[in-house]
Amino acid sequence: MKIIVSLGGSVLAPRDSERVGAHATVIEGLAEEGHTVGAVVGGGTVARKYIHTARELGANEIELDQLGVDTTRLNARLLIAALSERAATRPARDYETAGAALRRGEIAVMGGVTPGQTTDAVSAALAEYVNADLLVYATSVPGVFDADPDENPDAQRFDRLSAGELVDVIADIEMTAGSSAPVDLLAAKIIERSGVRTVVLDGTDPDRIGHVVNTGEHDGTDIVP
Ligand code: U5P
């Protein structure tokens, strides 16, 4: 199978070496089982700290996005540090470079690409570009909810959503640098048009990623084309 794993920054970095190492082990394991694997790493709390400070300093949203992109690449390098020589040596800055690495049998790693989006959209675009069989969003929230579960204890998780329904659920969420929708709107639109099978799950335990690839089972949200 061809798999793109979107690792939320808060899932991976700046956690300890154990967490990053555990994710690297799962990704390596999938590659060793014969899967083609690409990983896209988000910015997490480090990006949000930079964005918060720079916003107070008066930076505009595009400047803040650029800070975010640089941070995702930093986090992507942390994952590369934990991967073996099977991984590309640096985070790809565009889809063609990542796609070429996958064709060579390497594990491609990306961070952000361009302002005005998040790594959710990068993951969806890479999955579309390489015709992935499965796109896994490993986030710190266990799926897509009808409200923010951190703020609303009654928030309900969707087991299954069509890509069009996903677009409707997240359309009202504000889009500023560092925003934390479950999956961003552009990502949802790309998933809708590409029809790539997508799962949003709690990725704090990396074994859940291996489990969904090998069994199709998970406790998160299925986005069906
Ligand atoms: N970002 C972009 N473009 C990208 C990826 C990320 O502008 O292609 C910026 C956004 O401000 C985003 C932040 O909120 O970096 C951190 O990425 P993420 O963890 O939200 O995906």
SSE inventory with pairings:
Blueprint: E1 2-7, H1 9-12, H2 17-32, E2 36-41, H3 44-56, H4 61-82, H5 95-103, E3 108-110, H6 119-129, E4 134-139, E5 160-162, H7 163-170, H8 185-194, E6 198-202, H9 207-215, E7 221-224
Parallel strand pairs: 1-2, 1-4, 2-3, 4-6, 5-7
Antiparallel strand pairs: 6-7
This protein binds uridine-5'-monophosphate (U5P).
Please characterize this protein's 3D structure.
By secondary structure, the chain is of the alpha/beta class. It has one domain: Carbamate kinase (3-Layer(aba) Sandwich). The chain has nine helices and seven strands. Strands 3-2-1-4-6-7-5 form a seven-stranded mixed beta sheet, sandwiched between helices. The model has no long low-confidence stretch (mean pLDDT about 95). The protein binds uridine-5'-monophosphate. The site of uridine-5'-monophosphate has 22 residues, from α4 and α6.
Descriptors for this entry?
alpha/beta; Carbamate kinase; 7-stranded mixed sheet; globular; 225 residues
Bound molecules: uridine-5'-monophosphate
The biggest beta sheet is recorded as: 7 strands, mixed
- Can you tell me the CATH topology? Carbamate kinase
- The chain-level mean pLDDT equals 93
* Unreliable parts: none
CATH architecture: 3-Layer(aba) Sandwich
- Output the strand order for the largest sheet: 3-2-1-4-6-7-5
Q: Roughly how many Å is the radius of gyration?
A: 16 Å
Q: What spatial form do the alpha-carbon principal axes imply? A: globular
Q: How many distinct folded domains?
A: 1
Q: What sequence of helices (H) and strands (E) makes up the elements? A: EHHEHHHEHEEHHEHE
User: Residue share in helices?
Assistant: 40-55%
Strand content: 5-15%
Distance between the termini: 18 Å
Q: What is the count of DSSP helices, taking H or I runs of 4+ residues?
A: 9
The beta-strand count equals 7
Query: What is the CATH class?
Result: Alpha Beta
CATH superfamily label: Acetylglutamate kinase-like
Q: Give the class from helix and strand content and strand pairing.
A: alpha/beta
